Automatic annotation (TrEMBL):
It is found in: Membrane. This is Alpha-(1->6)-mannopyranosyltransferase A. GO terms for cellular component: membrane. InterPro entries: MptA/B-like. It holds the Pfam family MptA_B_family. Its main location: membrane. Its EC number is 2.4.1.-. It comes from Kocuria varians. Keywords: Glycosyltransferase, Membrane, Transferase, Transmembrane, Transmembrane helix. It is a multi-pass membrane protein. GO terms for molecular function: glycosyltransferase activity. The keyword Membrane applies.
Length: 521
């Protein structure tokens, strides 16, 4: 990474003592903690509180949500805190440039310090966690979440779920539904306690990533501290997987642990862990063919590979089928793979390019909507084709990297990309090497974009509050202004995207501490 002023070499021995480097790095850790604490305070006035929560009757919460200037203050705290967390993350990477001994300990400290206030914040950036309560209630009521939505339950709206979940079937696997049912049984659907337990379950996934991302990175000749900084310490990861309590955290943690086990020649353990990940959210089924390649081993014949693929599928699907038989849900989770959510997001490549195809088609007097739909289906089909190519082409070389690219293709070429979907593939990419050229710079841009997007998109203000300017507009202006400050004015961070000119973007700069392992798993 570049430093402020004259840039230091991207790799090599770090100047100064390790103690001095750690001291300077801890300045960034403290600044990030302050940002995270600001987000916690801001969440009290603009986070998602269930209507049935006792918090809505607390005098402090009432004051923060009824007084117009308190609402604006909380909006400013939440947005500035998020942007300060971004700056702290960038500065931590700069201060640890060269990644000397002790860097991983510093990054772990940062993850813990930055996530601690978020662990107790009111849900922000998403309220999907409240839908988890409804799905747990469906399980305890003996209903099938793969058939019925949470609107079939009494009082569902008072527990905080977005109305979009009212008629929606759950896209989650059986193991997460077991977790949801267990949480509801323990809390009797009390929303605040339920959120905390779902958050703790998500934090298990965060811990798994903290443990296994560096291990997987070292297996590929990549600096473990740097991989951990990219994949786990970034603000989008902490906000989405801790503050928002997305179950994707547990899915990703189990997947990374399973990939590491398989890469270390423990294929059965790897299959079990990845199957656990599929049981949280089925999308990680894409990893199974590559787990099979790791099991087959170097120099395996095609016959052995096909036999291993069949055995991998039999073990994983057999466990999932048996699990479905236990609760009577069968393989109902498969609908999430076969019948994806309709629509698109405008910032996804598929969504944005599809809009341009539609405009051109309409301008030519053609069915623009039909052409756009066909174009998006073509991109999805291309992603599946690429997965097949990466399964069959490459032999024994860089299997985990091919897995990461295949996973990235399926996510990035889908019509719908939620901000936290980027976090599905980032740990695998970071562990197999992200170079200090356009690759890391794209990560900076994407992480910042989605944090800014969430800051203005997901704010909860009581509808009867009369605001002269919407909180979304306030948050958007603050976030954009702070982003421009980081990119143009801050002498510490403004060189991150510009250092080295075009060569800095497209030059053959290796990742810090990495080596190109031709036969890496």
């Amino acid at each position: 990474m570049s430093a402020s002023g004259p840039a230091a070499p991207p790799a090599g021995p770090h100047t100064g003592s390790t103690a001095t480097v750690e001291l300077r790095a801890h300045v960034a850790v403290i600044q990030g903690f302050v940002g995270s604490l600001m987000m916690f305070l801001g969440s009290l006035g603009t986070g998602w509180i269930a209507n049935g929560s006792p918090m809505v009757r607390h005098p402090l919460v009432i004051e923060l949500r009824v007084n117009v200037w308190d609402v604006y203050t909380c909006t400013v705290l939440l947005t500035v805190g998020a942007m300060l967390l971004i700056r702290s993350w960038l500065r931590l990477g700069q201060r640890l440039r060269g990644w000397p001994p002790g860097s991983q300990r510093t990054v772990v400290t940062a993850v813990i310090a930055w996530s601690l206030p978020l662990l107790f914040a009111v849900p922000i950036y998403s309220r999907d966690v409240y839908a988890y309560i409804g799905q747990g209630r469906l399980m305890l009521a003996g209903k099938d979440p793969y058939v019925e939505g949470i609107s079939s339950l009494d009082n569902w709206f008072m527990l905080g779920a977005d109305p979009e979940w009212a008629e929606a079937r759950t896209p989650y696997g059986p193991y997460f539904l077991w977790i949801a049912a267990g949480v509801v049984r323990l809390t009797n659907a009390q929303p605040d306690l339920s959120v905390m337990l779902f958050r703790l379950a998500a934090y298990v996934g965060v811990v798994l990533c903290m443990v296994y991302v560096p291990k997987l990175a070292r297996l590929h000749g990549v600096n473990g501290a740097r991989a951990l900084w990219i994949a786990v310490a970034n603000p989008l990861f902490l906000i989405s997987f801790v503050a928002s309590a997305h179950n994707d955290a547990l899915m990703v943690g189990l997947a990374v642990a399973g990939v590491y086990a398989a890469a270390r020649k423990h294929p059965l353990l790897g299959i079990l862990l990845v199957t656990g990940s599929i049981g949280i959210k089925p999308i990680t089924i894409l990893l199974l063919p590559f787990i099979g390649l790791l099991w087959a081993g170097k120099g395996a014949s095609w016959l052995r590979r096909f036999v291993i693929w069949a055995a991998t599928a039999l073990i994983s699907f057999g466990l999932l089928a048996l699990s479905g038989a236990v609760d009577g849900l069968g393989l109902g989770w498969a609908w999430a793979l076969l019948d994806p959510t309709p629509g698109y997001t405008g910032y996804s490549p598929s969504g944005f390019l599809g809009q341009q195809v539609e405009r051109v088609g309409d301008a030519l007097g053609l069915d623009g909507g039909g052409l756009a739909g066909g174009f998006r289906r073509l991109l999805q089909g291309s992603a599946i084709l690429l997965v097949l190519v990466l399964m069959f082409v490459g032999g024994d070389r860089k299997i985990v990297r091919r897995m990461a690219v295949a996973f990235a293709a399926v996510v990035l070429l889908s019509p719908i990309i939620q901000p936290w979907y980027i976090l599905w593939l980032l740990p695998l990419l970071a562990a197999t090497g992200i170079k200090d050229n356009w690759q890391i710079r794209i990560i900076y841009v994407v992480i910042t974009f989605f944090v800014v997007f969430g800051a203005q998109d997901q704010l909860s203000v009581w509808p009867f509050i009369d605001l002269s300017v919407s909180v979304s507009q306030v948050a958007f202006v603050i976030a954009v202004a702070f982003t421009l400050y980081l990119a143009l004015l801050d002498r510490r961070t403004r060189t991150l995207l510009t250092h080295g000119g075009w060569k800095g973007w497209f030059g053959p700069t290796p990742a810090h501490g990495s080596t190109d392992l031709r036969w890496a798993p």
